[in-house]
Specification:
10-stranded mixed sheet, 20% strand
Length: 474
């Protein structure tokens, strides 16, 4: 009981002594609080970076697995598309053969150029032996465009204009829809497109949010109105995030491309004849791009190798960042301890006569020592509270200033600690540093420990002062 009374008395005196020197206490708390804020913000930044890297890795690996599974279902699929930079009209002048496809001018839609092939080419390709089915697509950007500013190298910025959404016209044949993956199936509202549909569309949820429409509403496309019958979730970012599907005849009519297509999905009778069919198309139509199952697997492997290399670089940079973080935390710890040490040394020197009076009144060395230890711990605790408050608000800024950024797809750079990673669809993942309950508890523990350590020598020195010498001190 007596010990508890002594402890409460020492705490009361510590609070009173700190409050008597308000300006000094305020300055010390400000200095300590920034040191404490740094101590909690750096680990928060490291944790955010680790979580982002793990999240991006898991997402990418999952996407790779899904893509590989989908590719394995397309062993008989041959994708044929027009090559950017040419417009394939393929009207045959007298005296020319089907192996000489003439070219025309490139139509331009907003900021994007689109090339097409005439459906007469589709008829010619369909006559190749061993082709089971052909699915025709027409892709075109919207008339509406938006301006964006992108960051380029050397700190330069560029303004670009891109289409608000992409129109995809597809052959609406029930047998094709049932046998092949030619349209989105992850419908979240309404229904998918069906054979016989015209004057209607399905679109991504991102696009419905942007245009402010939903199932049952109408949307204007190239001056014509189409009903929205379904909404689906996009599988990726970029162009896929804002897309709409309609019947290919509607798409050809509304965009002024009657008789044209931009892409074909050819399905061979079996996988063994895919290479022969692809070779024939490459020879006869050299300006078309032909992609087979083997090409898709090769692209997937290249993507995986590039990602693995970038991940290795990012992990190496993360290790260096963690070493830097450890050094900076140690500096903050030392700075905090030294601030408490010098402040308490000055306090002991300033209050030498007061210490002598306590000793003359019967205070033991332990009483005096605990008095100054409590004052140091009290200052550190108040600074810890302020530092944690600063960290809650400024952790992203502090971590970005003190640590290099780790970019999963582009090495590292200084001046930012927002781990970013481009998904295989062009998306970006950003994780912001934030304090966790564990970090808050650790910060309070560090405040008590550093306050005690910083005050230990000054408190011991105060306890060793002799009353007679203290009374003579000027």
């Amino acid at each position: 009981m007596h010990a508890m009374v002594n402890c409460l008395g020492a705490l009361t005196r510590a609070v009173r002594n700190v409050s008597r020197r308000k300006m000094r206490a305020l300055l010390v708390i400000i200095a300590l609080s920034f040191s404490m804020a740094i101590m909690v913000s750096i680990p928060a930044g490291i944790m955010a970076n680790q979580e982002a890297t793990q999240s991006i890795t898991a997402t990418f690996n999952s996407t790779l697995s899904n893509m590989e599974a989908e590719i394995n279902k397309t062993t008989t699929l041959i994708e044929v598309s027009t090559t950017s930079g040419r417009n394939f009209e393929f009207s045959r002048p007298p005296g020319t053969s089907s192996s000489t496809p003439p070219s025309g001018d490139m139509p331009s839609f907003g900021s994007r150029t689109v090339s097409y092939m005439n459906e007469t080419v589709v008829d010619e390709i369909s006559s190749i032996d061993c082709i089971k089915d052909i699915v025709k697509f027409l892709e075109a950007p919207s008339e509406e465009t938006i301006s964006e500013t992108i960051n380029g190298p050397f700190g330069r910025t560029f303004s670009i204009s891109r289409a608000v959404y992409t129109i995809t016209g597809v052959t609406l044949d029930s047998s094709l829809i049932g046998n092949y993956s030619i349209m989105p199936t992850n419908i979240t509202d309404g229904r998918p497109l069906q054979e016989g549909d015209n004057g209607v569309v399905i679109m991504t949820s991102n696009l419905t949010d942007y245009l402010g429409v939903g199932v049952g509403d109408e949307v204007e496309i190239y001056g014509e109105y189409f009903g929205v019958v379904g909404v689906y979730e996009p599988s990726g970012q970029g162009n896929d995030a804002r897309a709409l599907y309609m019947d290919i005849i509607d798409a050809q009519t509304v965009t002024g491309n009657t008789g044209n297509v931009s892409r074909l999905d050819l399905y061979a009778e079996n996988a063994s004849v895919v290479k022969d069919i692809a070779d024939v198309i490459k020879v006869v139509y050299s300006d078309l791009t032909v992609t087979t199952y083997e090409d898709r697997l090769s692209n997937l492997k290249t993507m995986q190798e590039r990602y693995t290399e970038n991940l290795s670089n990012a992990q190496s940079t993360l290790s260096q960042t963690q070493a830097t973080a450890t050094q900076e935390i140690m500096i903050a710890v030392v700075a905090t301890s030294l601030i408490v040490l010098f402040v308490m040394l000055y306090t002991v020197r300033e209050r030498t006569k007061e210490i002598g009076t306590f000793k003359a009144l019967g205070f033991s060395n332990l009483n005096v020592m605990s008095q100054f230890l409590l004052e140091g711990v009290l200052l550190s605790l108040m600074a810890g509270v302020v530092g944690i408050a600063i960290g809650y608000v400024a952790a992203p800024t502090l971590s970005s200033l003190l640590l290099p950024s780790v970019n999963l797809f582009g090495g590292s750079s200084t001046g930012g600690f927002q781990p970013t990673g481009s998904s295989m669809f062009g998306g970006t993942t950003i994780t912001t540093a934030a304090l966790t309950p564990e970090l808050v508890l650790l910060a309070f523990g560090a405040a008590v420990l550093l306050g005690a350590l910083g005050s230990l020598y000054p408190a011991w020195r105060a306890a060793k002062i002799k009353p007679a010498e203290a009374m003579r001190y000027e």
